[in-house]
Amino acid sequence: MSEKKEFMFFIDAMGGGGAERVISVLVPEFVKDGIEVSIVMMRKKEIAYHLPKQVHLYYASDLKVSIYGKIVRKLFKYHNNLRGKYVPLLQKKGLLKKLPEWNETTFYFYSKFALPFKGLLKQHKNCIAFGFLIRSSAVLAMASRGLPIKTVYCERSNPKRHNIQNSLIRLRDRYYPKYKSGIFQTEDVMRYYTRLKGPKRIILNPITEGLPEPHKGKRKREVITFCRLGKEKNLTMLIDAFEKTRKDYPNFVLKIYGEGSEKEYLINYIRKNNLNDCVFIKDFAPNIHELVKESYMFVSTSNYEGLSNSMLEAMAIGLPCICTDCDGGGARMMIEDHINGLLIPKGDTEALYRSMIELMESEELCNNLSLNAAKVRNELTPSKIAREWESFAFSL
């Protein structure tokens, strides 16, 4: 009788982010291969992606803790009360530096999440556990300590990005060396994790199945992007470069699809620059690929990325792509300049403007880029990428 194979994915929640999407695409393949799959979440939030009914879902708040865990939680609650009472006083007197918020400390993560997760892992000692995102990866490292669990650290972004809280950087850098192995998206990212001594492998993101076929007819005069609307996406650069193209190509429009913290700022930026008639912020849509498949080009202006799912999906549906050679290295891994896309320096509005004009002036170049970009859909199928994950995990 063969030994049961089991994967457990630890993550904050299964919301609408890129890491969550990767899990949702890979999990059905693992289930098909007879692997028992669980997703263990720190918080209860709406699950944004469809998951097979065979997948087990666990939430920290629903899991029991041992008597030891209950005692520890009471001690940490007592510690938190003292902290709230005396730390501000000591800081006011200049006797203590500013500390991170309580809910970003090791004490908090251990007492609230690692303790219940440890109890769960004790029941699944033969599993291979994957940690996604900083908080949940740190929690998995805490919970698996002292247990014969094979753990895999999964970095899904650029660890050098500038918007990570210092407390989370310390948390991540303290706990990632505890992992037995790691999976990364790019060489640039993997090189950061020098203190992780176990096996490491680069595995690219899978591309969602069921995407529309590449468009082969006349393209709409639309420049588009779809992404999370955050500062790191540098979307004002895209707006500024597009505005410059209006002098020669006033019949084009720019559509930005997505949600995020910068949405209101971008709407006001468009209004301030009198571009309401040609630049539009659109809500992210479940059928985004159908909406944009006939567009003229896709543009990504990110300052940093791991391996952009939006870029891969745009390439897969045959959109001519312009991407910044941003920190993290994902774009330069996938795009061969003027072969399957255009690669420009990050933050270079003038280079973006010239590249957009180059595509607007040459339908032949657009068609060639589209044809070559679409080849990625056969290279990064969910089944192929899932086999790479399985091959690595079962070799540990």
| Number of self-contained structural domains | 2
- Please identify which CATH superfamily of the largest domain we are dealing with: Glycogen Phosphorylase B
Order of helices and strands: EHEEHHEHEHEHEEHEHEHEHEHEHHHH
The CATH topology name of the largest domain reads: Rossmann fold
Which bin fits the share of residues in helices? 40-55%
Beta-strand content estimate: 15-25%
Query: Which CATH class of the largest domain applies here?
Result: Alpha Beta
Whole-number radius of gyration? 23 Å
Can you tell me the CATH architecture of the largest domain?
Answer: 3-Layer(aba) Sandwich
The strand line-up of the biggest sheet is: 3-2-1-4-5-6-7
The main sheet comes to: 7 strands, parallel
Number of helical elements: 15
Strand tally: 13
- Specify the oligomeric state: single chain
Mean pLDDT: 91
Characterize the structure shown.
With 396 residues, the protein is an alpha/beta fold. It has helices at residues 18-32, 67-92, 106-122, 134-143, 166-175, 187-192, 235-245, 263-272, 288-292, 309-316, 330-334, 349-360, 363-373, 376-379, 382-393; strands at 6-11, 36-41, 56-59, 128-132, 150-154, 181-184, 200-202, 222-226, 253-257, 279-282, 297-300, 321-325, 342-345. The chain folds into two domains: 6-65 and 99-206 and 381-393, Glycogen Phosphorylase B (Rossmann fold); 222-379, 3-Layer(aba) Sandwich (Rossmann fold). Helix content is 41%, strand content 15%. The strands form two sheets. It has a seven-stranded parallel beta sheet, sandwiched between helices. Strands 10-9-8-11-12-13 form a six-stranded parallel beta sheet, sandwiched between helices. Strand 1 (6-11), helix 1 and strand 2 (36-41) form a beta-alpha-beta unit. Helix 2 runs antiparallel to helix 3 and helix 4 packs parallel to helix 5 (166-175). It is globular.
